[in-house]
Design goal:
The protein has two domains: 105 residues; 72 residues, Arc Repressor Mutant, subunit A, CATH 1.10.10. Helix content is 74%, strand content 0%. The chain contains eight helices and no strands. The longest helix is centred in the C-terminal third of the chain and has 26 residues. It starts with a helix and ends with a helix.
Length: 188
């Protein structure tokens, strides 16, 4: 199996959330990232955080049918980690332009920006969920996270039938959207 086939298999395994693929990607790439971050004003803990974020970006990309890896996997991960690390240093006022001279970079700014926007939206949604109150938070959690059916939700929350539970879920969802978009509007 050549490198290209191996990396495609790793990406497919990552997209399928296979433990072996994830462990292989970590094993083959983490030490390089850790060395880069420690060498550039960071700590091993920073390297773990940055690498984890890069793996999330890679996971999201690997799930897309349209994603085509145009370089080696290690180069792609290195570029993501480098971009995330430089951004973190800049935010913490520990950034030095000499870091920009590091070789082996692939433009990943767009992916990082999209990932950060998605994270910000998730944070806003989490805040909105915390503001919505009970029983709405529990009903939405039961339906969307725990994947319970409407009859199960009706039984759990004491509604007379699944239609009543569905109506309540809809009302909760409308309230959640209202809170979320009020927050979203204030952020922008």
């Amino acid at each position: 199996m050549n490198i290209y086939e191996k990396e495609q298999a790793l990406l497919a395994g990552l997209a399928a959330n296979e433990t072996n693929a994830i462990e292989t990607i970590y094993r083959e790439n983490f030490t390089t990232i850790q060395a880069f971050i420690v060498k550039n004003n960071g700590y091993p803990e920073d390297a773990r955080d940055i690498f984890q974020e890069a793996m999330i970006v890679l996971f999201e990309k690997a799930k897309l049918k349209s994603f085509v890896l145009s370089c080696q996997l290690k180069t792609y991960l290195y570029s993501i980690c480098r971009r995330l690390w430089l951004k973190k240093l800049q935010q913490e006022s520990r950034y030095y332009p000499a870091f920009e001279l590091t070789n082996e970079a692939v433009p990943v700014d767009e992916e990082i920006d999209a990932h950060e926007k998605l994270n910000a939206n998730f944070n806003l949604m989490e805040q909105a969920l915390n503001k919505i109150g009970e029983p709405c938070k529990s009903i939405l959690d039961a339906y969307y996270i725990q994947k319970k059916s409407m009859p199960e939700i009706a039984e759990t929350f004491g509604y007379t039938n699944a239609d009543n539970a569905k109506t309540q879920k809809y009302k909760c969802l409308v309230r959640l959207k209202k809170i979320f978009f009020a927050q979203y509007k204030n952020v922008e």
